[in-house]
């Protein structure tokens, strides 16, 4: 999987969680973790971006929206590694997405 953003943008990322039969996972009581690192083996403490979500607008749909603000996306342009993990209500962890996170240099720097 590949995600692309522009540096210093506010971004919403939607991830859909399904079970083995393709049915939506009810996210009630779950936590979704999103992590971006330079190297896959870097410790979480060295991650460039970390975000977690525990409140979902429609948990029964299995859709989690993660919001990154412009301070979180203010990292050097380049290619990084990301993953998304789900901790369910019984504390079981599963990774749903792993891939490349591309940050493109922004052109406009002003915000007012």
List the main descriptive attributes of the protein structure presented here.
mainly beta; five-stranded mixed beta sheet; 46% strand
Assembly annotation = single chain
Mean pLDDT: 94
Helix coverage percent? under 10%
Shape: globular
Helix segment count?
0
Q: Roughly what fraction of the amino acids lie in strands?
A: over 45%
Q: How many strands, what sense, and barrel or not for the largest sheet? A: 5 strands, mixed
Q: Gap between N and C termini, in Å?
A: 34 Å
Give the arrangement of secondary structure elements.
Blueprint: E1 2-6, E2 11-16, E3 31-37, E4 49-53, E5 63-68, E6 78-87, E7 93-104
Parallel strand pairs: 1-7
Antiparallel strand pairs: 2-5, 3-4, 3-6, 6-7
Overview of this protein structure:
- By secondary structure, this protein is mainly β.
- It contains no helices and 7 strands.
- Helices cover 0% and strands 46% of the residues.
- A hairpin with a 5-residue loop joins strand 6 and strand 7.
- The mean pLDDT is 94.
Please sum up the structure shown.
The strands form two sheets. Strands 1-7-6-3-4 form a five-stranded mixed β-sheet, with no helix packed on it. Strands 2-5 form a two-stranded antiparallel ribbon. The radius of gyration is 15 Å and the shape is globular. Helices cover 0% and strands 46% of the residues.
